[in-house]
Amino acid sequence: MSRRIRGTPYTGMVEKHGVSDFTVVNHMLLPKGFKNSVETDYWHLSKEVQIWDVSCQRQVQISGPDASKLVQRLTPRSITKMETGKCFYIPILNENAGMINDPVLLKLDDDMFWISIADSDILLWAKAYALGLNLNVNIQEPDVYPLAIQGPKSESLMIKVFGEDIKKIKFFNFRIMDFEGTKQVVARSGYSKQDGFEIYFKAYDGHFDTIEMGEKLWKTIWDAGQEFNISPGCPNLIDRIEGGLMSYGNDFTKENNPFECNLDRYCKSSEHNFIGKKALEKIKKKGLKQKMRGVMFDGKPYKPNGKLLPVLSKNKKIIGRITSGIFSPKYKKNIGLSMISKGYWNENEKIIVETSDGKLVKGIITTMPFPK
Ligand code: THG
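A: This is the predicted complex of the input protein with (6S)-5,6,7,8-tetrahydrofolate.
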């Protein structure tokens, strides 16, 4: 494998567990599947607990006297009231108000933030902007390798490893927890709709070897997880689509603005200046051409194959394409996410989907997340 594709401290562990495929996100390996089918993993995730190597959720660390000023300029979401110990889901826009990332922001201190990025090079963007504005900040990618523990039994498992204080961590908050004499950021969050935690594992200061300590963390959780029927896993496509969790680069790109992505609630503040503000105000005045929606459709159980399925109106006009889709065993229907043209995006609107074999099947527009 080329040196540009980076492994993680847990790559050896996921290989031992029989990983079947990888994808590459932020120039780093992300497991795509193990021995079981996506459907088997989906049921397991909804009942038990899984351990995921999500090291590719790289951290862009911004510290120094102008850290909060820079972070605020990077997003339309106001961070004025953000407290240390909080996680914020934030849109990051370019000058045209196109989405260039949708990371989770962590406030570690008044002058110290981590931006936990989706798949685009925000470190370069932030550095260039800080240079241009002559800001007093330090920006780097620290040796942090997030490990996700997801599923309804994740709390019991995490208590066993880290102690009762785990219970005090509320959704989208984090605490500093001890592991083998190291301090670790542990958040209640993760890329699933189940309860779950993310350990932003860091070996610290060269006192500990990253791979050795990372494997120790994995093994400790794995052993403690045996009584909870733990299995290795990865972000699950069925759970993600049902839960309306969007994937940058797949469901939306820089060609989409945050309103199209239903991120209006993070673009409400008019008080502060940020990249893309003028363009965003223009879009708001002009109105939208399309919006991200859930789609449910008939036909054979859909197996994703990288092709986008056209979504048509009753009179056969193309009104969108399914960017992520799969058969849902819960709804016993095919489900998907799609940008849907204005006039057709209302809930229960009847649509037609062209399947991979060229058949036209019936479908409807649903809410995002999908109805319970
Ligand atoms: N965890 C961390 N970093 C990440 C992701 C993650 N970086 C990349 C990618 N995932 C970013 N995208 C998302 C998308 C949705 C959520 C988190 C990251 C998410 N959303 C909550 C929901 O929709 O229920 C709402 C969050 C809120 O509004 O407060 O969890 O998964 N570390």
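The first strand starts at residue 21 and ends at 25. The CA atoms of residues 342 and 368 lie 16 Å apart.
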